[in-house]
Amino acid sequence: MDFLVQKALDGDHRSIARLISLVENESPFASQIMAHLYAYTGKAHIIGVTGSPGAGKSTLLDKLISSFKGMGKKIGVIAVDPTSPFSGGAILGDRLRMQDHALDTDVFIRSMGTRGSLGGLSRAAYEAAMILDACGKDVIFIETVGVGQSEVDIVKIADTVCLLLVPGMGDDVQVMKAGIMEIADIFVINKADRDGADRLAAEVNIMLDLYGKKAWRPPVIKTIAETGEGIDELSKALLDHRQYLSKSDEGKKRFYSRIKMEVEEILKREIAKVVEERWKECCNDELISALCAKRIDPYTVAGRILGDIFSRG
User: Fold this and answer.
1) Domain topology for 40-247
2) Could you give the CA distance from residue 35 to residue 164 in angstroms, rounded to a whole number?
3) What is d(CA 184, CA 193) in angstroms, rounded to the nearest whole number?
4) Does the N-terminal or the C-terminal CB of the chain have fewer CB atoms within 10 Å?
5) Considering only 19-33, 73-87, 208-222, 249-263, which range has the smallest mean pLDDT?
């Protein structure tokens, strides 16, 4: 295992892919891997790219990869797809839209399933980003599944969040919803050659005005991902936000919040494993029959199991 970790730290893509698979599949070595890599993390710029299905996230990412490659950056991409109900794996295969970079030694692209996470992200996606960070990637893009308002999970793990909006797709309504405005550090009006792009950009700016003055006002950038129009402006905005975070109290707060979240998520996962194992031990026909006959209720059963677990501890 130490040999595999060292090869990944040296930048070997096959070893990186193997580590991500071990973590994603909750290998017994997963915690050991993440603990070993932790000291090497914290250097990469993690960028979340989110928006409704059909907004052009993958096409935009393809152009952003080229832009950052031109700056000499090493890039990682995690494309979070819906999970197959049969295999548990990702089913959309966003890598097809980034195939020009598939064999690039400085670009690592991985599709991952949501694994039932309502926020569009699984714990493994965050850990995959940490692995890529430790293994020398300068910029890590996380493209989320695009499920709308519940996708605020991305703000927990990304340094910078890009929210893609498209004219004529109801995004002028979507952007008004609670939670959506708060997650974006940069608004991108993609497919800006469509009618209504200027109006949508104006509406976003009006909403930003209503939120009052902040140290960082999210820029509203119009792009046409298919042609690459606006990509240079967007790349500059991403770099500017990175610079802002490095010098501001907000950047420090986000970092502290992420560290706190990381410990909390590990605790939740480990506790869930213990509870699940205990439930399997307790679950039998007699107990299920008692529940069905209303001789006992699920809350009492759960309380007894938890009481037993913590009394043992």
Assistant:
1) Rossmann fold (3.40.50)
2) 34
3) 22
4) C
5) 73-87
